[in-house]
Amino acid sequence: MADHNTASAAVAPALAPLIDIGINLAHDSYDRDRDAVIARAHAAGVVQMVVTGATLAGSVRAVALAREHPGRLFATAGVHPHHASELDAASLSALAELARIPEVVAVGECGLDYFRNFSPRGAQQQAFHRQLELAAQIGKPVFLHQRDAHDDFVAILREHAARWRGVAHCFTGSEDQLQCYLQLGLAIGITGWICDERRGAHLTALMPQVPAERLLLETDGPYLLPRDLTPKPASRRNEPAYLPHVAAAVARSRGEALESLARSSTAAARALFALPPV
Ligand SMILES: [Zn+2]
């Protein structure tokens, strides 16, 4: 499409400020030029970002980044299902301490991943229970990951019903799964997966079903570089400056103006994570 044809379009400032609710900014692929990545994001209108923590050590790094950029970067603290078997009593109490830090705005990334099963399913379920309990104790939302584990994921969320708020990050599921999540009260995180005409086409049709006050945007960088970005960076690394490109795809799918989607998704992100205005 015409608006995808130039490099400048990919990083053009959004009409309204955006918030990247899922960026793995502590990832080592950003070690060489992290400040430039942050500067490009701000130049593109991405005014705040929630840095994903996926391990205890990664969450500590996410918190450090948030402290270096007060009011702009925030962190999640959690243990991804891939690392669930690492969550013993000692690391759980360290995580609980970390999660209480003001810069930490959610518990997670947590959930279930039966696609890879890097941790045994039983360990994944236990780690998920513990992190839902932690979020309830400290009154913060959960940042949720689910892959090929929908039924168990929903069953565990139901067990903890009414004690959590949260977002299903990187939603790529079916209409039934979307409706189930919406009934549970989840917010929905949409990534550049929607820009993939092979894998993401079904998401386009689902976008009008997501209430504006529950639709959040994320890059999940350095992963999930939007497939239709032109030209693509040689590194194939995704970064938060490409969030306006994802926002434009979501807005088109909803038949909505980009500015209106930007305004509602930014308000929704601030509400869920209790972020201050910029
Ligand atoms: Zn994830």
Question: What features would you highlight for this structure?
Answer:
278 residues; alpha/beta; 8-stranded parallel β-sheet; 10 helices; 40% helix; 15% strand; globular; disordered N terminus; binds zinc ion
Question: What is the gist of this entry?
Answer:
The chain is α/β, with parallel strands linked by helices. The protein contains 10 helices and 8 strands. The chain has helices at residues 7-10, 34-43, 56-68, 89-99, 121-138, 150-159, 175-184, 201-206, 243-254, 258-273, and strands spanning 18-23, 46-51, 73-77, 104-113, 142-147, 166-168, 187-190, 215-217.
Report on this model:
The chain has 278 residues and is α/β, with parallel strands linked by helices. Helices cover 40% and strands 15% of the residues. The chain is built from ten helices and eight strands. The protein has helices at residues 7-10, 34-43, 56-68, 89-99, 121-138, 150-159, 175-184, 201-206, 243-254, 258-273, and strands at residues 18-23, 46-51, 73-77, 104-113, 142-147, 166-168, 187-190, 215-217. It has an eight-stranded parallel β-sheet. Helix 4 (89-99) links the parallel strand 3 (73-77) and strand 4. Helix 3 runs parallel beside helix 4 (89-99), helix 5 packs parallel to helix 6 (150-159) and helix 6 runs parallel beside helix 7 (175-184). The longest helix is centred in the middle third of the chain and has 18 residues, at 121-138. The protein is globular and about 45 Å long. Bound molecules: zinc ion (ZN). Zinc ion is lined by residues 109, 145, 169-170.
